[in-house]
């Protein structure tokens, strides 16, 4: 565990908890894409199947359980909570998220390190995570005005990506044989998807204005 | 040789 990895995990954790806390306290999920949240629930469910087969550390297992629990809680709130579900921007959140799932599954069947059930699902989760933010970014563009919490959520997620890339560079330099092309390329694609959002986020922060994305 | 350590990340 290096400092970049820890910072990445903590911003990732903060992003999910900020979102869950927002939904729980103000009983509103306005501006949040259910499609993206469902994709993340699928990402965690397929990636963390190894909690049953391998043990790395208490930290690792605990974090996996928190990510699984919080992502499924968010989906539950948005779909079934009687107050929260009414605040969901159903008409605006129209991204066909299944069109992301199938190509990712196909790609994982074709490009992977080992052809085993767990390994293919693990690879699938990497590909899916790379694009899972897309419905959320589309929703942000459509509603244009973003409340602070939704902006912070995407900002923290982007921070998590940035720290993970630093973590990979660090591990590549310090650990022998640390080469993971699939993880790196998927991670890089994911980080690039945030670049556009970050540009507008910093612009609004610099001008001390409410974040507005161009149509 | 392929390292398995990438799987220790979240």
UniProtKB/TrEMBL annotation, chain A:
Keywords for the protein's UniProt record, in alphabetical order: Endoplasmic reticulum, ER-Golgi transport, Membrane, Protein transport, Receptor, Transmembrane, Transmembrane helix, Transport
InterPro entries, per database record: ER_ret_rcpt (IPR000133)
Record's bilayer topology term: Multi-pass membrane protein
Keyword 4Fe-4S: no
Compartment(s): Endoplasmic reticulum membrane
Residues annotated as transmembrane: 55-77, 98-115, 121-140, 152-170, 182-202
Principal subcellular localization: endoplasmic reticulum
PANTHER family, per the entry: ER LUMEN PROTEIN RETAINING RECEPTOR
Family: Belongs to the ERD2 family.
Protein name in UniProt: ER lumen protein-retaining receptor
């Amino acid at each position: 565990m290096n400092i970049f990895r820890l910072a990445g995990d903590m911003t990732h954790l903060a992003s999910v908890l900020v979102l869950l806390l927002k939904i729980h306290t103000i009983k509103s999920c306005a501006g949040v894409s259910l499609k993206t949240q469902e994709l993340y629930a699928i990402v965690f469910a397929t990636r963390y199947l190894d909690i049953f087969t391998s043990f790395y550390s208490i930290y690792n297992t605990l974090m996996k359980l928190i990510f699984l629990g919080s992502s499924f809680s968010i989906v539950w709130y948005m779909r079934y909570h009687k107050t929260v579900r009414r605040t969901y921007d159903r008409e605006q959140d129209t991204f066909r998220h299944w069109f992301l799932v199938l190509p990712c599954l196909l790609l994982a069947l074709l490009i992977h390190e080992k052809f085993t059930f767990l390994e293919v699902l693990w690879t699938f989760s990497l590909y899916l995570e790379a694009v899972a933010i897309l419905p959320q970014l589309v929703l942000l563009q459509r509603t244009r005005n973003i409340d602070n919490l939704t902006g912070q959520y995407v900002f923290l997620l982007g921070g998590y990506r940035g720290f993970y890339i630093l973590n990979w560079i660090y591990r590549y330099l310090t650990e022998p044989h640390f080469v993971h092309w699939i993880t790196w390329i998927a991670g890089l694609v994911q980080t690039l998807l945030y670049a556009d959002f970050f540009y507008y986020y910093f612009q609004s922060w610099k001008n001390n204005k409410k974040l507005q994305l161009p149509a | 040789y392929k390292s398995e350590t990438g799987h220790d990340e979240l």
